Structure formats: C-alpha cells, structure tokens
C-alpha cells in the first residue's frame, strides 16, 4: 500500500509542476521551446530525460535480461546520437532559430520536402510516444494489479494534463524532477540492491552463460542495426532538435548535449546490469519487459520500491511528453501554419493540437503491445527517410530541392517494402532504406542541380525567421 501511495504522490508532483509551468506561458514560443531560456542544469536534465524513456529503461532492462551487459547497446547508440547532436548540429540549429526537423528541410529545400518530412516526423514522434505509454502500462500493471490498457490510460492522462496545460515549460519542470528521481532510483537504489541480492557480480558470472558478459553477446548484426536505427535516428530526432531550441545559448546547447550523452551511456550500462541480475534471480519470467518491475518488487523494501517504480514512470513520461509536443509543434508550425496563417501560432492552437496528438497516441498504444517494436518501426522510417537529406542539407552546397524530395521518397518506400518482406525487426529495412536515400540524393543532385535548385546553399546560409 505504501508503494502505491508513493506513486500517487509522484503523479501529484507531476501535475503540480505542470500547473506551475503553465503560468509561465505567454506565447507560442513559451509553449513550444520554453522561451529559449533554459540554463545548463535544466537543459541537460531535460535533454537526458527525453532520451531515457521506456525503451531505454524498461526496454533496456529487458534487453539485459535477455542478453546481459550487451543489452546496453540500444541505449549506448542513443547516447552517442545525443552527444553527436551537440558536436554536429547544435550550433547551426540554435543560431538559425530552428524548432523542427521539417522546418530545416523546408527552409533549405522548399515546401514539398518540408511536408514530406512533416509526415515522417509526426509518424515517428507519435510511435515513440506510444512506446512510452506502453511502458507506463507495463510498470503500473505490476504495482496496481490492473489491466494493462487501464494502466496505460492512467499514465497517459497525467502526461496529457500537465503537457497540455503548460507546454514545454511544464514538461521541462517535470523533466527536472524526473531526472532526479531516475538518477536516485536507478543508480543509488535498484542497481546496487539487485546485484547484492544476486550475491554480487562474481556470483552472476557463475550462474549465467558466458554470453551474458560478452560486450557483443547480443550479436554484431544487432549492434550494427541499433547503430543505424538509433544513432542516426537520434541525430534527427524532433524531440532532441526541439530541446536544442530551449537552450539559452549555443554553448549551453552544445555542451549540455555532450554531458547528456555521457550520462545516458552510464544509465544504459546500469540498466543492462539490472537486467542481468534479474535473469539470475527470476529466470522464468514469461515476458522480458516485466523484468524491471519484477526485480524491483523482489529486491526492494516497501517505499523504496515505490521510488524505483516512479523512476521507470519518470523515464517514460518525460520522453512521451517531449515527443508528443514535438509532434504537435510540427503539426501546427509546419503543416497547418503555412495554410491557415498566424492563428496556428497561438497558445490555443498549440494546446488543441497537442491534445489531439495525445488522444491519437493513446488509441495507437491500446492497439500495440511491444515497447521496442513501436520504437523500431518509427526509427526505421525516420532514419531511412530523413537522415540523408537533413545531413546533406546542412553540410553539402550541391544539395538540391529535387534531390531532397527524391531521397525522402526513395528511402521511405524501400524501408517500408523491406519491412513487409523481412519483418519489422529485420536489419534490412533501415540499411537498404538509407542506401536508397543516399543514392537517390546523390544522383538527383548531380543530374538535375541546375534545373531544380535555388542558388546553392545549406541551412547555415538560410537566415533565421521569427518563430
């Protein structure tokens, strides 16, 4: 009972932080990018929490349960991606006042590429947000012994209330709380206590197969697939780009991303070790996604267990809220605003769009049951369709509008075809999708550059526009 009270208090804290954040909203810039005023601690905390969601926490422990320490590969690729954003894109994106990935495409290549990018980004942010809602349901089911659909709906309701009320200010304030809870819950409580319950690392090595302690035990091909999916995908992740825009300076944007990458890598290692200990303690779990909550229930006393479960909820809720507001920002700013004008830039329009996106996310979540599966589908399409045109648009002056459209279409179509042929979890969709995107971009740029491009430029040459 005490653990349930802790979770309820946590939800109340989130709603309270959402209310406080809502009082800071005066315009669309406040709602979507927190007024571009975040300092180092708030920015780094928020950047970390948007990365470390249900796939990194519940999913990371699940992979550790199945594969051992190499299960950290997924989170490691996320951490490398977020760090590289600081190196490659933070300066250009922050200086140009860009809020969304499709905005960068449209300002570099024109309206058609921006619209195509918007479709992919909305799909991506929705499905990764869906993965977080699924993860919330998985965790709450263990604590409250309720149907998974109802559990997911409860977590979704809390996210929707504080996000719609205060936008990015509320999300950032809840992120800071969630960052602290995750840090304490994972590093100070669950990791040491799970390993101690399993009689230490030495005992784990005796009880489990050697592959559990092989850094590439999950498989080189799987690690390569995670690299293609999550490293490249996170470089152009809408949630991350929108977070770049919240920093108060280019320096904060760059160094905060690098620090966040280091933190996330350590978090991934901790999750894999927790999953490894769970395998030794609970070897016959029917569902690997239950490993996080199940091992926490086994090794932690009342009250402490509630804090650790709150850490899992914090991970999923922070990522979900960041991605869902990313989806609604693309919807209002890149899809509706060019057609309906500045009324789409109002607080009211932003709130309505975010509410609509949240409702769609819940409906999709109730129809799916795999955390990693939802993320994989979304990230496949994002990396295959947008990585090449975004990167070349930022860096290569011979890029053309025609090439961007050809690249997006070719990469997306090939990715979808290979998903159908080889399955959602195969490596081929993203590998061949990115290859097709690259070939289409290069050929179209070189062959039809003079006919279809504006004067040669990259995003660095495009002046910032008012938000």
UniProtKB/TrEMBL annotation:
GO molecular function: transmembrane transporter activity
The keyword Transmembrane helix is assigned to this record: yes
Positions of transmembrane segments: 6-22, 43-65, 71-93, 114-144, 150-172, 179-196, 216-236, 257-278, 298-331, 352-368, 374-395, 402-424, 430-447
A Pfam family it matches: SSF
Subcellular location, record wording: Membrane
GO CC annotation, single: plasma membrane
Gene3D superfamilies: Sodium/glucose cotransporter
Keywords attached to this entry: Membrane, Transmembrane, Transmembrane helix, Transport
Bilayer topology term: Multi-pass membrane protein
Matching InterPro entries: Na/Glc_symporter_sf (IPR038377), Na/solute_symporter (IPR001734), Sodium:Solute_Symporter (IPR050277)
Organism this protein belongs to: Saccharopolyspora elongata
Protein's name in the database: Sodium:solute symporter
Family: Belongs to the sodium:solute symporter (SSF) (TC 2.A.21) family.
